[in-house]
Amino acid sequence: MSAASLAMRLPAHAAALPIVLYVDLSVDPAKEKDFLNAYHTHFKPVARKQEGYVDLTIAKIDKVMQGAGPAKGVNYRSSSLGRAKSCGRNGWPRQTMSPTGHSWKRH
Predict the structure, then answer these.
(1) Which of 13, 14, 67, 75 has a CA between 20 and 30 Å from the CA of residue 28?
(2) For residue 67, what pLDDT is reported?
(3) CA atoms 44, 48, 52, 56: torsion sign
(4) pTM of the predicted model, to two decimals?
(5) Which domains does the chain have, with CATH numbers?
(6) Can you tell me the distance from the alpha carbon of 93 to that of 95, in angstroms, rounded to the nearest whole number?
(7) pLDDT tens for the 107 residues of the chain, in order
(8) How many CB atoms lie within 10 A of CB 1?
(9) Distance (Å, whole) CA 91 – CA 37
(10) How confident is the model at residue 81, as a pLDDT?
(11) What is the pLDDT of residue 25?
(12) DSSP state letter for 64
């Protein structure tokens, strides 16, 4: 297969692949319990209803096994998995405010 024919096949094939979005979060340890409650009771149920939704996970970062690690103060990582075709059509996932109305801090 030539490089040109391979390049023409990639867009159609890529549309069938899922997209993973990682979000690093700085959560105040004093508010960690509230954060996890909001994540599981508000944010994840709303995400499940979105077209193209596959999975949504949250992980606490305790230590870095390889590389430089996340920015200082980042203690959680969320990952969203969605179907590429749906994500491209309607922009999912897209949220700038938490379900409880608190702004998310970008790093």
Answers:
(1) 67
(2) 85
(3) positive
(4) 0.63
(5) 17-90 (3.30.70)
(6) 7
(7) 554 444 455 566 666 678 888 999 999 999 999 999 999 999 899 988 888 888 999 999 988 888 888 888 899 999 998 886 655 445 544 444 454 545 444 44
(8) 6
(9) 26
(10) 87
(11) 93
(12) -
Q: What's the rounded Cα separation, in Å, for the pair 41 and 90?
A: 24
Question: What are the b/e assignments for 60-95, b being 16+ CB within 10 Å?
Answer: eeeeeeeeeebeeebebebebbbbeebbeeeebbee
Neighbours of 52 (CB within 10 A): 19
| Tokens at 83, concatenated | 């179907």
53/35 Cα distance (integer angstroms): 22
Spatial CA neighbour of 93 closest among 50, 49, 40: 50
Asked whether 80 and 61 are in contact (CB, 8 A), the reply is no
